[in-house]
Amino acid sequence: MKTTSLLLLMLLLSFFAQAQTPASKFDNLRVFIDCQTFCDSDYFKREITFVDYVNDRFEANVYLLITSQATGSGGREYKLQFQGQGKFEGIVDTKNYIRQATATDDEDRKEAVEKIKLGLLPYLLKTDKAKDLIISFKGTEQQAANIATAPTEDPWNFWVFNLNMRGYFSGDKNYSNNSLSGGISASRVTDKMKSSFSVNASENNNRFGEGDEEFKYTNRSYNFNNTTVWSINNHLSAGGYISAQNSDYNNYQLSLAVTPAIEYNFFPYSESNNKYVGLMYKVGPRYFNYKEETIFSEMEELRFQQSLSLDVSLNQKWGQLSGSTSYSHYFHDLEKKRVSFSGFADIRLVKGLSFNVGGYYAIQHDQLNIIKGTVTGEDLLTRRRQLNSNYDFYFNFGIRYRFGSIFNNIVNPRFDGGGGMMYFY
Is 370 helix (H, G, I), strand (E, B) or coil? Predict the structure, then answer.
């Protein structure tokens, strides 16, 4: 009798506990996106605002794997595989779409967003957000999207950490090169502030020739960087940069810079996926402690520098356009200055015909760190250290015309080795 009463009491307590606890089905969807191809994750988060994005797949209740393969017409077939986890275990679905060879990145990411929304629908129907669903068709006016809502609980407080290490070895009888690098980075991004830190170290060893003709050198570098920025309003941001560097190539025993900055975006930041025109002003001190005496007979100096830059980025159906121009100088000598221009464009002129061009050019008279002395032949051939130059540039261009069938969307991976690619981080 006592045993029966005890069991009834436990059942009642369990019932009331469940009645007081909100059902798990009412939680937000927690989505982990595992993208094995190119993805515009920021765009996804801005367009799909009704889920929480997590950085650990084991914490997600919806796992999304995105992969792609080449099609016969030169496009790509994208496969979006949805797999429920936890309370959604057993709910799986796959969405596919074809990116035509003539499509732009903007068209591609819009198609991806639509497929992701469709794939999330079965999971949404099992949450309390289902009652807020509105079914409509193309042509209806859409409300402007806000940044995805923050998860209710985050033990890491939005911090994300990355550790990396990479080694590279190559050579033959007359030449060898080996390098080892590694680092750690951390970032935290919210609507009001974002901050990132990174520490990196690398060593590069080179050998040319053998025996009496052998020439060897080693370059080491250590870097620390921090960027922190606060949102002031929809157009204005303020923050700064902190950097420290030790570098054989740049002749730095220690280079230390603290640079406050302010940025004005002529368009609202919420539209930056499609258009961004930003003006940034930076000013601050730079301290240099050199490994060897410079061409200005300095071993140590403290200088103040300011810069103004204009950056443009457009991503539309007709293609992509981005560019930057900047001017900077040191206060102690206004002739110690730099002017730079860079840009990239990929324009679809007509269907099937596209043109791309990119480049960089800098007029530079601000190289305070150049080592004093004669430039040797080894210095010129191996570029083992930075040399004096009043300009720097690169340029590339291309044109592409594609014609024929756009309906050959068959995926045939034979002799492609599975279509896999190796990525290094």
Answer: coil
pLDDT, tens digit (0-9, with 9 covering 90-100), for 28-86: 788 988 888 888 888 888 888 888 888 878 888 999 999 888 876 678 889 899 999 98
Model-level pTM?
0.75
Residue 310: is it exposed, middle or buried by C-beta count within 10 angstroms (0-12/13-18/19+)?
A: middle
Average pLDDT value over all residues in the chain: 85
Amino acid in position 3: T
Cα–Cα distance measured from residue 342 to residue 362, given in angstroms and rounded to the nearest whole number: 9
Q: Which residues contact 182 (CB under 8 A, 6 or more apart)?
A: 163, 164, 165, 166, 200, 201, 202
Q: Where are the alpha helices (DSSP H) in 153-223?
A: none
Query: Residue 237 and residue 252: Cα distance in Å, rounded?
Result: 31
Beta bridge partners of 192: none
- Token pair of 40, please? 């515009």
Please state which CATH class domain 232-419 belongs to. Answer: mainly beta
The token pair at 231 is: 């949102």
Other beta carbons less than 10 A from residue 88's beta carbon: 20
- Whether the CB-CB separation of 338 and 363 falls below 8 Å is answered with yes
CA distances (Å), origin 202, targets 199, 225, 289: 11, 15, 20
Q: If you average pLDDT over residues 269-273, what whole number do you get? A: 82
Instruction: Tell me the CATH class for 2-132.
Output: alpha beta
- Whole-angstrom distance between the N-terminal and C-terminal Cα of the chain? 67
Please state the φ and ψ torsions of residue 313, each to the nearest 5 degrees. Answer: -145, 125
Domain boundaries, the chain: 2-132, 232-419
